[in-house]
Write a structure and sequence with these properties.
This protein has nine helices and eleven strands. By secondary structure, the protein is an alpha/beta fold. The protein has two domains: about 290 residues, Nitrilase/N-carbamoyl-D-aminoacid amidohydrolase (4-Layer Sandwich), CATH 3.60.110; about 40 residues, no CATH class. The chain has a six-stranded mixed β-sheet with strand order 5-4-3-2-1-11. Helix 6 links the parallel strand 8 and strand 9. The longest helix has 17 residues. The chain is globular, with a radius of gyration of 23 Å. The two termini are about 40 Å apart.
Length: about 350
């Protein structure tokens, strides 16, 4: 069977969320999906933590001043099967597009445990891949838990083989190689609106724009893939919430280098311009056949490696807070039955079945 190399249009949504409002953000995303689909896009990408917005406050103020914002984020963090993502799924299905959505994920197991997650949604609205950021970066550790490797995979689609990493994961050579070695052709990398580490103007301050350019170019060039880079931006409401009337914080927010969006080809060259600032959808025409020729020069998952020297193994076991193994059936009696003869058959739900249902 001969290989096929799909062509399609991708859309990177360089946009602001409805800050700390997941349903409002979902409805905005649905409108953007419709706009992108009308423009001919088959893949629509949203930024890191887009739903309900990136918790930038963890970089700006002492933790003792951020409890209320964390509670708001926790309340607005969504479940994979929740109503907010259902709005996005319906839009993907209605317009027949694949959607990548960054979101803060909550769990029924805890009211305060959150993950920085990304979901790839198919044209039929179903989940194609669900990834939790492996390690929250720097101040993000105050917000999110570490993820696992369940979503460290490349998804075969009619647009090609799609992989995705979140922000700092694009600096992790092993995570990137894990996707390369699964035949990745289209890479999605998502970023926040800004990432302050020092007061702007300090020579050691982190330049998010430059960091993204380096990471994106490196992965495109090394993996020989198209790289769809999508960062968020902040609107006036988000800036007001983050600064909370503090002029010094407002100045930091305004002058900190912003995240940028772009699309790169398998040689690391720009397909679109590098965009920052105001909200905009970037479009790029993708031809996955362009991934082939550069593999002649350096194919790090093929002949240009030494597998007799280097080995990488990935454990994709989901890391859940509790698991239920095979246990003996529950006793058939209760205190109220103590004086009655033992029954020959256990009544009600066994611990084994209860465990299975809880795991589901």
């Amino acid at each position: 069977m001969s290989a096929t190399y799909p062509r399609f249009k991708a859309a990177a949504c360089h946009v602001a969320p409805v800050f700390l409002d997941s349903m409002g953000t979902a409805e905005k995303a649905a409108a953007l999906i419709e706009e992108a689909a009308r423009a001919g896009a088959s893949l629509v990408v949203f930024p890191e933590g887009y739903m309900p917005g990136f918790p930038l406050w963890a970089a700006l103020r002492a933790p003792i001043r951020n409890h209320d914002l964390f509670k708001r984020l926790a309340a607005e963090s969504v479940r994979l099967d929740g109503p907010e993502l259902a709005v996005v799924r319906a839009a993907a299905r209605r317009h027949g597009v694949i959607v990548s959505m960054g979101f803060s994920e909550g769990t029924d197991a805890s009211v305060g445990c959150l993950w920085n997650s990304n979901v790839l949604i198919g044209r039929d609205g179903r989940t194609l891949n669900h990834h939790r950021k492996l390690v929250p970066t720097f101040f993000e550790k105050l917000i999110w838990a570490s993820g696992d490797a369940r979503g460290l995979r490349v998804t075969p689609t009619d647009l090609g083989r799609v992989g995705m990493l979140i922000c700092g994961e694009n600096t992790n050579p092993l995570a990137r190689y894990a996707l390369m070695a699964q035949g990745e052709q289209v890479h999605i990398s998502t970023y926040p609106p800004a990432w302050p580490t020092r007061v702007p103007g300090d020579s050691a301050a982190y330049d998010l724009k430059r960091a993204i350019e380096i990471r994106a170019g490196a992965h495109s060039f090394e993996a020989k893939v198209f790289n769809i880079v999508c960062s968020a931006t902040l609107d006036a409401d988000a800036k007001a919430t983050l600064s909370d009337g503090d002029a010094a914080l407002a100045d930091v927010i305004e002058r900190t280098p912003a995240g940028v969006s772009m699309v790169l080809d398998p040689a690391g060259a720009l397909v679109t311009e590098t965009h920052e600032g105001e909200e905009r959808i970037l479009y790029a025409d993708i031809d996955t056949a362009a991934c082939v020729e550069p593999k002649q020069f350096h194919d790090v998952v093929g002949y240009y490696n030494r597998f007799d020297i280097f080995r990488l193994s990935v454990d994709r076991t989901p890391r859940e807070p509790i698991s239920f193994g095979a246990e003996a059936a529950a006793p058939a009696w209760t205190d109220a039955d103590a004086d009655e003869p033992a029954r020959s058959e256990p009544q009600g739900l066994s611990l084994v079945e209860a465990g299975r249902r809880a795991a589901r």
